[in-house]
Amino acid sequence: MSKKPDGVDADPATQEQLQSYTRAEEDLAQLRVPVLLHTSNPHERLYIAAQDGTGNSLYKDAPENRSIVARIHAQIRNFEDQGVTNIASGYVEGIYTQDNPFKRIPDGVCGYTFERRIETAYWELCKQARRWIYDDPDVQIRVAGIGFSRGAEQTAALSRMIEERGIQNPEGANVVTDDEGLVTHIEYTSPPLVPPGRTIQTALLLDPVATGLEEHDRRLPSSVMSVLQITAQHERRDLFKSTDHIPAGFSEDARAQHHGQRRAQRHR
User: Fold this and answer.
1) Among 171, 212, 200, which Cα is nearest to 188's?
2) pLDDT tens figures, 24-45
3) Residues 143, 199: contact at Cβ < 8 Å?
């Protein structure tokens, strides 16, 4: 083990461990992924619900330190700026990102803003869905949830919320937010834009961690047509243990895969 310039201990990866990346690519090639946007269907829309990990923020982290969740969201926003209209993204910062340390530290320990962040992610989806439906009443909305760490647990919980609620109409909703802009209370007053159980979903779960969130319902619903979970191997984290949302390996129909991957330090 060696100490890196940032003060973090790192074990150089063996050749066998480096080869695991090649095997991972081969496994991914076998994963059956549903096509959510067809060039032949002008009514299809894809919404990316991006929820970041503990302590991760697109707005506060240096660009080189941003998580893959933040980077994906930023890339999709660039597409929107270039005139792409059939894909949109919403983003929620991770737990433990508040400016006030008296709020941030307890959140890092127990994740008390978990439900607020899910409600905020759902609210952003509803607002985008309303804009799409206004432009095209025949629109067909699909949702891809992407989350890292506790944000991956929020992604699982959000998918269940969409399954149970459908996509609500934000018009006339009574919304209360905290000083971080997170939804603390909301009442939808109009019929849903999309009924429950009608929205096709997929999920990308990156190192899901449920510390402080164990009592929340995070079971993936049947409307999640495909899921990929990636979990780091050989990490020592007694207080932040990973969650297995799906069994290791492939599902029988190859629509779900749980892949364990070592975070390797390459020899130079």
Assistant:
1) 171
2) 788 777 777 789 999 999 999 9
3) yes
188 in a domain, yes or no?
yes
Question: 247: domain range?
Answer: 39-259
d(CA 118, CA 1): 39
Is residue 184 a part of any domain in this protein?
A: yes
pLDDT for 20 equals: 79
Token couple for 91: 């983003």
Give Cα separations from 197 to 11, 39, 126, 241 (angstroms). 46, 25, 15, 31
pLDDT (tens digit per residue) in 62-84:
999 999 999 999 999 999 999 99
36 vs 200: CA distance, rounded Å: 8
Domain tally, the chain: 1
The position carrying tokens 């980077």 is 71
Distance CA 194, CA 140 (A): 9
Answer whether residue 253 is part of any domain: yes
Looking at residue 100, which CATH number applies to its domain?
Answer: 3.40.50
Position 24 in a domain: no
CB 198 within 8 A of CB 189: no
Q: Three-state SS string across the chain, please?
A: CEECCCCCEECECCHHHHHHHHHHHHHHHHCCCCCCCCCCCCCEEEEEEEECCCCCCCCCCCHHHCCHHHHHHHHHHHHHHCCCCCEEEEEECCCCCCCCHHHHHHHHHHCCCHHHHHHHHHHHHHHHHHHHHHHCCCCEEEEEEEEECHHHHHHHHHHHHHHHHCECCCCCCEEEECCCCCEEEEECCCCCCECCCCCCEEEEEECCECCCCCCCCCCCCCCEEEEEEEEEECCCCCCCCECCCCCCEECCCCCEEEEEEECCECCC
